[in-house]
Every structure is written in C-alpha cells, then in structure tokens.
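note to self: dont lose this again. the chain is below, predicted strucutre after it. 491 aa total, dont forget to put it in the shared folder this time
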Amino acid sequence: MAYTNESHMGNEHHSRWFFLWDFLIEKGSLTMAKSVTKDMTAGSPIRLILQFGIPLFLGMLFQQFYNMMDTIIVGKFIGVSALASVGATGSINFMVIGFCMGVCNGFAIPVAQQFGAKDYHALRKYVANSVWLSIAFAGVMTVSVCLLCRQILGWMHTPQDIMEGSYAYIFVIFLGIPATYLYNLLSGIIRSMGDSKSPLVFLVFSSVLNIMLDLAFILVFHMGVAGAAWATVISQAVSGLICLAYMVRRFDILRMEREEWKLESGYVAVLCNMGVPMGLQYSITAIGSVILQAAVNSLGSLAVAAVSTSTKISMFFCCPFDAMGSTMATYAGQNVGAGKLRRVSEGIKSTCVLGLVYAVLACGVLVLFGSDIALLFLDKSETGILQNVQMLLTANSAFFFPLALVNIVRFTIQGLGFSRFAVLAGVCEMAARALVGLGLVPVFGYLAICFANPVAWISADLFLVPAYLYVMRKLRRSIAERDAGVKYCLE
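---
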C-alpha cells in the first residue's frame, strides 16, 4: 500500500513489532527477500502448483480447524441445542459471507493477470480501486443483512427452540462483514502475486487466537453461542490487520503514488465484472443450500445437529479441493496474462490427478472412521445423530472427485477471466439442491439430504467441463489473432 521511505523504515516500536515476524519466517525456513512475489509463468507446472498450493491448503486447514473448534466447544460445553443453533445458520452464513469471499477473490484476478503481464502500474490501480469497492460493499452489506437477520431465519423455518441461539450467533457474524472483506481482499492480493506462505503464518496465529477467545468467551464470560461468533470475527479482523501491516512492510511493487489511489470507472468496471459474478456464484449456490437447510430444519433440531456435524467434518476434509481451486485461479490468471495457455492445460491436468488421488484416500478415511470423528462434537449417547452423521459422510465422500473437478475447473475459468461462467455453474448447483430440498426431502426424508451435494456437484461438472473447453478455444483464437496482428505490423 502507499507509504513513504521514511514510514517504511518506521520508528523503533514499528521495527520491534516486525522483528517477531522476521524471526518466525526465518525459523520456519520461509526466508524471503524484500520482494516476496512469485512468477508462476515459468518452470514446472506441477512443482509450482504444489509449492503454491500446499501452504494454501495448510492455511485453509487451520481456518477450518478453528471453525471446527467453535463447533466442538459449543457442542461439548453448551449442548446439542446450541450446536443445532449454530448449524441452522450454516447456509445463510455461506450465502452472505461466501459472497464477500467471492468478490474479494474476483478482485484479485486482475491483479494476478497484471502481475503475469508485468504491468505494475495497472496492478496498483486495480489494488487501489478494489480497496474502495470493498469499503462500499462491506458497508452496504453489513447494514442490510443485520436488519434482515431475524426475518431470514424465519423464512428458513428455523425451529423455535433454537431460534434465539441462531439469531445471537449469525447477527454477530454479520457484524463482522468488514473484517471478512479486510482479510479476504488482502490475502487474495498477496496470493495473486505468488505468495501463499505468508497467509498461512497469519492463519496459524489467527486460529490459536480464535480458540483462546472461544474458551474465554464461552467458559469464563458465559457468552454462549454469541461468544463463539465474536471469537471468529475478532480473530479474522486481527488476521486482516496483520496482512495489511505485512503488505506495507514487504511489497515494493505496491508503493503507490497519489494518482494511483484515484477511483476510475474503467478499473471499477473490470473489477466488478470479475468480482460480482464470483460473489454471486457463491450466493446463488448458497440459495440452493438455504432451501436445503430449510428442508433439514423441517426434520427437527436433531437432524440439524447431524447435518451441522457432518458438514463441519466434510469441510475439514475438503480443504485440499479448495486449495487446488484457489491455486489454479492464481496460476491460470498469471499464465493467461503472459499468453501461455499450454501451461494452463498442463496445470489443470496435473491438479485433476492430485484431486483424484486425494478423493480416494479421503473417502476411505470417512467411510471407516466418520462416526468416530463425530465424537469430537457429540457424546456417545447420541447414537441416532451419530448414525445419521456417518450416513451423510459416506454418501458425500463417495463423490469427492466430482467436487474436486468443480473447484479445479471453476476456479481455472475464473482465473482465465470468464467469471460469469461460474455464476451459471452456481445456478446448476442451486437448482440441484433446490430440487432435492423441495421435491425429494418431503418424500425420502434424511436419506435425500445425504445425496443433495453429490447431485449438485455432478450437475455443475456437466456444465463446467464443456465451458472450460469453450473458454480455452476462444482464448487460443484470440491470442492467435493478436499474434498475427503483431506480425503484420512488424512486416
């Protein structure tokens, strides 16, 4: 971000604060030069993907770890009713917070493309304009969803015995939307320039802080489920502030002139064209989840607890798929910026092989030990809930490779600059979940819930794979025409 050479040197207190960061990086064998960016347009695709993706995966793992700790602490120390209260908000949480995350990921794509093209002036303009847009989006969204929070829970048929707990939890989460934008925007920009290691360090710190705050707010201050929500919001805000301080300290190419901070319509249009479709993709997908959650809610609080528990476990095991997708967004963005489409194809093939291998291993673990893992959240006496958790985990894990394909192909398409296709893929997922929730759950009950996600993933794949082939053909034609025009001009 913008700073002068004097402020970069900093006062003595500023330097002491960063001494801890430098120490951690060096001791963790992650020593960096002043420039911490990474060019993914040259070198072995599989090596680059693994180097970038493993720290990203570990970061997501820690993020899911402290999300799981929320659920474990709530379930063990407050009870099944509180666990169901948090679980009942899962889909609406994903719909709103997912939009924030999608927008920020979309804003990072032009940054990755300009980094690949080595146009650093345009890169800084995109960063500055994304900051202004994020501030506006965060303000409008926070006010809107907080005002409508209780009505939304009512529309979702949230059981009355957990309504107040659900409201107390999700209202605080929505108050933290600015913190969500802060962390996701800045970490997305850091990753877009090839640095996936630093966000990992920040998330490790954030996860430890989140657990400590969970225990303090719930066990010491007796704040209930609202305490778990405050722990999540505060830890994310701290992580975002650390990202900001790190960017100021380390990224030379983000040193901005006053003129580069100006809001410009052209940059805003590109950012919105990338970010809003990606945000809508999350939200549209989540609409199907909201409909499905309403169907789950109609089955009672015990069904809600089972779905909540299995979802937390599944999200933990699905972190590698999310990391593969985010890696391919940056990898594809940098390489399309450099005009290297062959490397994009090589990258997506390698990542699909990795996805298949992991999907088989994860399925085996969940089929054999799913109910045992659920004991982290539930007591042994909850035999009915444990059986339902195992049923859902078995059904979902059997279709993990279609989920891997959804993430890899969708994020690659987004990195290539065709975010609107992601919206259509989200529509496919939404329609599939809505069909199950509205048409099949009333007939087959909980069994239909177990197969809702696999049906949604397969539906999205049937759209995404042809869309990827279409996008690659279009880009190859565009690059060929551009190269022919350059050759003509030179002649």
